[in-house]
Design brief:
The protein starts with a helix and ends with a strand. The protein has a two-stranded antiparallel ribbon with strand order 1-2. The relative contact order is 0.15. The protein has helices at 5-8, 13-16, 19-41, 45-52, 56-63, 71-80, and strands at 83-87, 95-99. The chain is 56% helix and 10% strand.
Length: 102
Amino acid sequence: MSSGYHTSWKVPPEHREDHAYRCAGRRMDLAQAVYGRRSTLGWSTSELAHRAGMSEEDIESIEESDVDPTLELIERLATALESDARIDPGSTPEFRFEERAA
């Protein structure tokens, strides 16, 4: 069996700093955060779309990592998901939604 990084999913450090790699990571973090919070709330994509004033296709695109996160989008989703948004470039994932403190 090959020991190349593709077979064991090891990414060389120089690739981790590539702009495209980091952008893809942010899209994936947003997708996971939206899906995770929506699932915790027990909502369908349709319910979240309604609450966010977006189309169901928009929510599906976000959850498929097809949308770059913007501050406006994050604020809109945080409000709709009744959550606080946490962004920490020093952690993995860099982005998450958290239940608002009571």
